[in-house]
Every structure is written in structure tokens, then in C-alpha cells.
Amino acid sequence: MKKYELKIYPDPVLRKIALPVNKIDHVTRHLLKNMSEIMYAHRAIGLAAPQVGASKRVVITDIGEGLILMINPEILSGFGEEQMEEGCLSLPDTTVKVSRIETLFVRYLDQNEKGKEREFKGLAARVIQHEVDHLNGVLIIDHGRLID
User: Fold this and answer.
1) CATH number of the domain within which 106 lies
2) Would residue 6 count as lying in a domain?
């Protein structure tokens, strides 16, 4: 099976719009496992499949409350706004002040193909928006001004 590795900007996969996952099979589960290993090895709190070279709509996050695996995530709505500095594994040594929605409603499939709709707040909402941006070829450097 393919061994995934972290991609660093300007790798072209980071600018591609990721494709939906049509079937959750052993290949998708292998991707999820590798993504988790990479995220935890780098002590990160989120990772999107394009960041490991897979142009698939897959996102993982763990802000200290347990691993959340999202396949084909879709942001349904949200409210509130908050600015915060963000970094990114694919953009080492780069920090950008980014404005994000504070409370977010998301629809996605879990690793067992079960559909979920869930509310996320605060840091969890921010991380999900950051990772969904990756699925659309958007990076933090597209959002605002760099922080010195």
C-alpha cells in the first residue's frame, strides 16, 4: 500500500480541489490511518488528505478530545466570527491571522460510512474550516496578512 508523506508548499497537490470519496474501502482506511500517524507525529491538531499527497475529500482532527475522521465534509452553516493566528504543517514557519466562523455545522461521513451532522465551536470549528480550505486548494496565506 502507498506510504503517504507530508507535502510542503509549493507542492501542486496543495492547490488542487480534492475529489469526493465515492467508496470507503481499505484504501480509504489506509489513508485515514496514515494521516493520523502523520498528524500525531507532528503534534498537529488537524490534517487534510491533500497535505499528504492524496487529492481526496478527507479531513482528520484532534484538539485533545479524541480523533475525528471526516469523509466528504460539507460546511452547512455557521455564525459568529473570530480572528486568530494560524499555522500549517504544509507552510512551515508561517503564521497568518485568519478570521473564521466561531460556531459551525458540518455534515460528513465517518469511517463506517455513517452520515453525521454535528456542531463544532471554537478551536474545533477553526481547525475544520482550515482543513476544509485545504480540500478546496486554499491555504492560510490566501486569507490575510503574514505575522512577523
Assistant:
1) 3.90.45.10
2) no
Residue 2 has pLDDT above 90, yes or no: no
**Domain for residue 60, yes or no?**
yes
Sheet containing strand 58-61, edge to edge, reads 46-48, 58-61, 68-79, 103-109, 115-121
Among 127, 125, 53, which Cα is nearest to 88's? 127
With 80 as the cut, is the pLDDT of residue 145 above it?
Answer: no
Whether 31 maps to a domain, the answer reads: yes
Q: What Cα–Cα distance (Å) separates residue 96 from each residue in 14, 81, 130?
A: 17, 16, 12
**pLDDT tens profile 30-80:** 999 999 999 999 999 999 999 999 999 999 999 999 999 999 999 999 999
Tell me, what's the pLDDT at 147?
A: 61
Counted domains in the chain: 1
Active site residues per annotation: 131
The answer to whether residue 62 is domain-embedded is yes
